[in-house]
Structure formats: structure tokens, C-alpha cells
Amino acid sequence: MALSAKQKWWIIGVETAFFVALAVWVLVRFDRIFEPGALLVATIIIIVGDVVTALMMERFAPTRITIEPGEAAGQIGRAVADFSSNGEGRVLLRGERWRACSGSPASITAGTKIRVVSRTGLVLHVETLD
Questions:
Q1: Label partner for 1 (CA 20 to 30 A): which of 8, 40, 90, 103?
Q2: Could you give the angle at the alpha carbon of 38 between the alpha carbons of 35 and 41, nearest 5°?
Q3: What is the C-alpha separation between 15 and 1, in angstroms, rounded?
Q4: Mean pLDDT of the region 62-77
Q5: CATH no. of 76-128
Q6: Counts for the chain of helices (H) and strands (E), in that order
Q7: Distance CA 106, CA 83 (A)
Q8: Is the distance from CB of 63 to CB of 82 less than 8 angstroms?
């Protein structure tokens, strides 16, 4: 089961709120709300909870796509929206949205099939597929 980015952020947000509530409860329960040691313990509870949640999410709902630097070239995708006049836009490749740029002056419209030429960081360099 793959979760969307929005669902992952909701899970992390709810989990963080839970651990904040747990930390506050611990501080109130032991009557140590404003002591530095107790605040440190509460902060550690929150951080450990966030790390555990992130590890569990990566185990059970990992990112669906990984593209190595040399692997991107030649893959086929579709433009998600019209590219701007400077050749920048977004493409859908293997179920994931990527920032993309086109070196050709021809505009790429939404739904146009594209081929990945190369990748620089998180930006794909694309051309239209004839």
C-alpha cells in the first residue's frame, strides 16, 4: 500500500501531536512542568516518537520510485501541465511527479508524451516523443 505525500504528512502530524500530548501528560503527572530536566525528557519522547514513525512509514509505505542518475534517460512519461515559455514544467513518470525542463523552444502541453534525456538533481531534462 503506497501512501500519498499528503497522507504521510498527516500521519506525521497526528503522531507528533500524540507524542506532544504524551510528553505534557508525563510532565504534569510528575509535577515537573518547568524543570529543565523534565523538558529535556519530554523533547526526547517527541523526537523518538517521530523517528520511530518515520522508520515505520519507510518500511511499510516506502517511496515508490527511485531513479539513479544514469537510469532516467530513455524513460517515457507524460506532461502534467503545459510547460512555461522558458521550457519548465512538470511531468508524470512511473507514477511520480517531477520537475522538468525542455531544451527545445516548442511548447509542451498537458498530456504530451515525453522522453527523459537526462537528469540533474531532481530536475528531468525532457524532449517530446514523436
A1: 90
A2: 155
A3: 19
A4: 64
A5: 2.40.50.140
A6: 2, 5
A7: 10
A8: no
Region 28-38: mean pLDDT is: 74
Residue 54 burial by CB count (10 A; 0-12/13-18/19+): exposed, middle or buried? middle
Q: What is the pLDDT of residue 105?
A: 59
| Cα 46 to Cα 48: distance, rounded to the nearest angstrom | 6
**pLDDT, tens only, 76-87:** 889 888 888 888
Q: Is 119 buried (19+), middle (13-18) or exposed (0-12) by CB count in 10 A? A: buried
Instruction: Name residue 98's amino acid.
Output: W
pLDDT in tens, 42-61: 788 888 888 887 777 777 66
The helix or strand, by DSSP H or E, that contains position 7, with its residue range, turns out to be helix 5-29
Residues with Cβ within 8 Å of 104's Cβ and at least 6 positions away in sequence, in order, are: 87, 127, 128
Count how many Cα atoms sit within 13 Å of the Cα of residue 125 in the half-sphere of its side chain: 11
pLDDT of residue 41: 78
